[in-house]
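Order emerges. One example.
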Amino acid sequence: MANLGNLIDPEKDPEKVAVIDEESSVTYRKLHHMSNYVAFDLQSRGYKPGDRIGLFGYNTIGYVAAYLGILKSGGVAVLINVKLPKTQIEYIAGDSGVKFLYEDPRVPDDVVCNFDAYDAHETDPAIIMYTSGSTSAPKGVVLPHKHKWILEQKSRNPAASRRRVIVAAPLYHMNGLSSAEATILGHGTLVLLKKFDPITFLKSIRYHRVNSITSVPTMLTMLLREKELLRTLNLDCVTHVKMASAPVSKNLFNALKTVFPKARIQNTYGVTEVSPGMFGRHPSLPTPDLSVGYPVSGIDYRIVDGILQVRSPSMFLKYSNVDRNNVTEDGYFITNDRFRVDEDGFYFFLGRADNMFVSGGNNVYPEQIESILEKHPLVESAIVVGLEDEIKGIKPYAFVLSSSNESDLKQYVLDFLPPSHCPRRIWVLDSMPLNAVNKIDRALLKEKALHEINR
């Protein structure tokens, strides 16, 4: 059956712990019945397959059960960011046609409910996920039940059932959702945190004997700053550290090897419209440190003018509210992400093409400047933003986590890049602001830069 909600095999390890959240835990048997209960409840209320059912809440067992139950009923799960302003939440509900909203869902864990999941076709809509909408109205990505295809590729690993995976990225974002889905499909154990806090995250790894970490680079950078706590924790239990959603610096990669000495450190890549984890391992060669991996069988890849285009069985159906879908006539999704491929066929993510700006006639890619700054031994993290300028059009400015100073860092950049690419100001911060999906909030930093230069 194609239904994406059928991630659980109720006959396989039914008493194994499936999900642990900050309040309790449930077995696979209980989670199976809880999701059936949600599906039955929706059917009893008169909702039909294809109806849009909103899901609004933090990472909890109830959220997971409600998500699977919506899918089992044949409903389309509309995943709503809890940190959006009221106006955007109302916009999403109206745009997607939400007929019922589960808010902070709590599902009884002592129910016994048998329910035959709706026999969905693989191309039927299953999920609608929305972009942040920071510069325009949020854009709804409509994913089919065939999204399950990429999860099945990931869960084929013989070690999948032995994984204890911690997820603090929100489940309404593909990074967190796909990690949770793959863990459940592989019958591992999922540890959920409602929000990311570096101290809680590290202590939870140790307490729950987590062996697999899934995150974004910003989160891992924040972990590494907890030096005193790290000295007290034995983290040898961690065998796999996976990060995605942003380019990764060599400094961060090497630092993670030190903190997690027994772990395979993996940089990954995915986009909501196509699939998570779009690259894998080479059949015989080791993956270079900063590469996102080697092409996966069943997915087609090509680079056009430096931009990655991908065609996958698990691709989205459409945008809910945008006519242009960035898909070519022959079915490739244009990612707008810059990539290079080495001589062995490994792919390297270089950053967003639409982050590029023109300064005095020169094409400036913020990620290029960031990568130079992050090579400095005293820089933990760097973000470059562009601000409008009457003469140059746009000028680059930078924020860093560093124990160095502005003048030394400017000179360091000039050793590698022309003056046009050197940040006009470099501000040292104690921490980077994060957005709702734990990525560095570039928009907020741009506002801060404007404030600083206009004072």
